[in-house]
Amino acid sequence: YLDISYKRLQQEVLEPYERAQVLQNVLSKVHQTSLLLRDGAIYIHLANRIQFITSKQTHYSINTALELVTYYTQINLSMSENVNLKSLRLIKQLETEVVIPVRKELINFLSLTLTKTLATPEQVQKDQEIISKLAKALHNMSQRDFVTTIQKAVLSHVAVTVQALAKTINSIKDFPVALEDAMKRSMAIESLELILHEVKVEKTSLLADYMLQVKPKNVRPHHLFWKKVSDAFKKEFDTSYSRGGPVGKSLARNGGMIIDTIKQRMADTITNDADSQDMDVMLHAVSIINPQAETN
Amino acid sequence: MNAKDADVTTTSTGRDDEILGIFFDQSFVPQAFVDILLSNAAEHGLSQAQTVSSSLLSRLDYYTKNLTRELESTVRKLENLSGALPSAWAANVDVNN
Questions:
Q1: What is the ipTM of this complex?
Q2: What is the pLDDT of residue A257?
Q3: Per residue in B58-79, pLDDT tens?
């Protein structure tokens, strides 16, 4: 009787139980294989697209570049979702031969195109939509390159402005024109801030992210612009003023005009307290002017 | 892929099908399998690797469906059995006494 009972147990319980365990194990392996194969196939498809597009053209258009960026976004996504993907030889090979080299080219292109678009105040105002797309794409590809590109653009406006203002020291009647140009550039930078502010990434915006990454931290780029312009201009101005001679004397004679120009022009754009800081910063650059000298 | 392969049923799972058979192998490692599969296929071009992946993927979907069905029916058998057990045990106890 026990023998029969055991046979029944064997047939009805142990065998199905073992079968269930085997099936579960096999299912799990089929599942793992499926997942890896699916992500692998997606990667191959994307790398294939990237290779196809870049083999056809040596110069990207902005639209091609943006299309490539969407492929990279998907690649990053499947890479982060499946860490085993990196260990596949074919994936490694595609990564070295296609994905990484094109990634570098793409970042260069985006950075260069964005730099060109940010070069003049007129273009910043005109190409806001393109700037927004390029900035977002570059940020997607490389946060570091995004930050460097924006920073360089701001600093290049600083350099041009400082040079133009420094020139007016020798012919001070040109000062209002140079200041006007400086204000255009400042406004372009403010427009850029607004564009970056409107592009949301995760829980923040491109602007907030940028301001966190650069030094000094959390300073609006156009405030930084005026600070740097003022510091550099002050150096030149102080030297020429103190040296005296015809140039120094001319500066002293026109001191009132210089201060009034800054006050009048810059006051027009003041919309809040932060903006009035810019005017104070600029007035500080010429603070060496001694009002009594004007009577000479 | 031959016609026989498509004939996997819930009862013959893992017996007739060569590809399915490898998943029953204890030493089977999914990562190594996919690695070799893709590398070999890619020697004939990326599009070959894509074709192989997609046809194997649909095959794997098919296995998943059948294996799941078989697992469900096995589990159901066990559940029915456990439902029946107490009374069977009770009967056994009676006989033994």
A1: 0.74
A2: 93
A3: 999 999 999 999 999 998 888 8
Helices A100-117/A15-56 angle, 10° precision: 50
User: How many interchain CB pairs under 8 A, A with B?
Assistant: 101
**Full domain range(s) for residue B56:** 5-96
d(CA A212, CA A210): 5
In A, minimum Cα distance to B28 occurs at A29
* Token pair of A222 as six digits: 């156009």
Closest CA to A131 of A143, A119, A142: A119
Q: Does residue B75 contact residue A41 with C-beta atoms inside 8 Å?
A: no
Measured in whole angstroms, how far is the alpha carbon of residue B9 from the centre of its chain?
10
Q: How far is CA B57 from CA A71, A84, A104, B60, in A?
A: 22, 17, 33, 5
Structurally, how many domains does chain B consist of? 1
Distance of alpha carbon B16 from alpha carbon B5, whole angstroms: 7
C-beta of residue A157 within 8 angstroms of C-beta of residue A225: yes
For residue A5, what pLDDT band results from cuts at 50, 70 and 90? confident
What is the average per-residue pLDDT within A58-78? 92
Q: Give the helix/strand (H/E) hosting A201.
A: strand A200-201
Smallest Cα distance from A75 to chain B, Å: 16
pLDDT averaged over every residue in chain A: 91
Q: Who has greater pLDDT, A157 or B86?
A: A157
B56, A37 contact by CB (below 8 A): yes
Q: What are phi and psi of B82, to 5 degrees?
A: -65, -30
Considering only residues 2 to 31 of chain A, which have any Cβ-Cβ distance to chain B shorter than 8 Å? 5, 12-13, 16-17, 19-20, 22-24, 26-27, 29-31
User: Is the Cβ pair B34, A40 closer than 8 Å?
Assistant: yes
Express each pLDDT in A169-207 by its tens digit. 999 999 999 999 999 999 999 999 999 999 999 889 999
**CA dihedral sign of residues A274, A275, A280, A284:** positive
Contacts of A4 in chain B (CB under 8 A): none
Torsion of CA A71, A72, A73, A77, to 10 degrees: 100
